[in-house]
Amino acid sequence: MACWLLPALPALAQAPVERRWDWRPLGVPLLELELAAPAGGPIDRVWFSQSGDELYARTRSGKVYVTKGGQRWRPAQDPVTPPRALEFRELDSAGSVLVWKDPAGSPRMYALGRHLLRSDDGGRTWLNLTEFRGGSILGTAPRDLAVSPHDPDVIVVANDYGLWRSLDGGLSWSGMNENLPSLAMRRILALPDGSTGLRVEVEGMGAFEWPPGERRAWRPVLDPALEYEARLRSLLSGVLETEITAVAIAGDFLYAGSADGRLWVSRDRGRTWQLPESVEPVAAVTRIWADPSQPQLALAALANRQGARVLRTTNGGLFWDDLTADLPPGARAYGVAADRAGGAVYVATERGLFYTRTQMDVPAPATPWMAAPAGLPEAPVVDVRLDAEGNRIFVALEGYGVYAATAPHRRWAPRVVHGADFSARAAAPGALLSVLGAHVERALAGTQPAAVLSASEAESQIQIPFGIHGDRIELALETQARSLHVTWPLKRVAPAIVLEPDGSPLLLDAETGLLLDAMNPARAGARIQVLVTGLGEVRPAWPAGLPAPLDQPPSVVAPVHAFLGNVEMPVLRAVLAPGYAGLYLVEIQLPDLVDRGPAELYVEADGAASNRVRVYLEP
Fold first, then answer.
1. Mind listing the pLDDT tens digit for each residue in 18-60?
2. What are the residues whose beta carbons fall under 8 Å from the beta carbon of 180, sequence distance 6 or more?
3. 471: phi > 0 → left, psi -120 to 50 → alpha, else beta; which?
4. In this model, does residue 15 exceed pLDDT 60?
5. What does the alpha-carbon distance between residue 219 and residue 4 come to, in Å, rounded to a whole number?
6. 59 vs 424: CA distance, rounded Å
7. Staple 320 to which of 35, 47, 311, 580, CB 3.0 to 4.6 Å?
8. DSSP states of 135-181 as a string?
9. 0.85 surpassed by pTM
10. 350 falls within a domain
11. Are 300 and 164 contained in the same domain?
């Protein structure tokens, strides 16, 4: 039956042991700006090979990529940038422009200025190819133009919004930004939280969000926190009479860093200021991190031509000790984050991500830095963030966007979390738990074996036995490095909808088996399958660790309800998910009339409610 054809689910770790760290891209390097196609980042130069079969592009970072036939981009090997085959000229209607003339002698000409113009009569008359409603359908700041050596109708424009190609002399346009790592990522503003997605700042363009369920491009948003910080830096620049480049607020503490390397601290939210400490040699303060629960603990990242510096204060800025130690010379620092409880500090640099093990709340000598586990693209890391529990790490890479993974320091401080959403919510018989930073070989829940469904250095996944009872379970975990003993709360049922790392829920169309998201919304009257864990006992009984059968999977014993907004939806079945261990499938029927757009969905079992997720609907 079609309703049981589940796809491969990327959020689930039910796979053989693997050695690679679990880095995963969140989003794609594309921006939705209502242009001819999704936009990318700044491209400085673009040119065709002499044969015309290959197209080269040079990003702002100086890296050169090549594509053949407009397919996937790849790094170019020893590319030679040709001299610009354009000349500057003044056009009465367009000002100073770059002009291309057909070397074959035809009257075709192109002029690239604020817009792209075409002439088919040697420059006597011009047609504007990109103007639309007072703007450009390709975006502003054009930088370069390439014309195929074999067909003057094939043209490519490079600008601050990426690459744009026309195959018909500029009458229609398509983007060439997919898979081209050019996104001018600046920093991470907010992590996924419920129905709010990951937010980032893109240089020169403001805040963008990757909403849960998005699959196409980052979308522009208004971010009050970003606007507030910009105003605060401007205000403090006037108050402190210097250029303030970084600020952080924790409790009543306000930290400020300047372009010349001075650090100020206010313990009363800016009413009075402690005299600044100057850092030598002079280096700009690029980012400040302050511990939200112990605001007298803070870190500052600084950068100059010599490289990165990382400073720590344990007493609210009375003095700062230097943690720089053996960070690579010449690696400018852009961001810093820490997990005090786990004893880890991370720094984002132009040479990659580094971390160190240190005691955050007492002054201590600097400790050696380690490079992040392999798996990230080779690109400058411009920011780093940890979630509130220090379980997941998020890094922003120049050109590529954001990657997420289990925080590498969990290797020395493993932690058990709920398998649905990395929370500390209670488990239920048959539920999934994840062990971060440990390769689990054997597990006991009380006196009963707990099935180890997958195991890697970054994360292992176990399933609680179905026959366990009580209000808590004692987990005994044998890993490759140590033994772990954890007490975890237990309930008869504790439903949780399974989420991907970007916060997207695992929802499927029952007819097609396709994941539902913003690009593939649920239709009115359709049947939706919700992937859940924690629904408890099933009938007939089924052993933990064994994938559920494809035909006639066991049914959930507890009564299950589903709600769209606050309206209850019919539940057609609630069973173990065929082919998976520890997962349940709840199938619901949508009404024949729904409003277009996102709606809130959750399930209940025996009165216990799950997390609330976003589902996209289409009438």
1. 456 899 999 899 999 999 999 999 999 999 998 889 999 999 8
2. 29, 40, 43, 57, 59, 65, 73, 162, 163
3. alpha
4. no
5. 34
6. 43
7. 311
8. EETT-S-EEEEEE-SS-TT-EEEEETTEEEEESSTTSS-EE--TT--
9. yes
10. yes
11. no
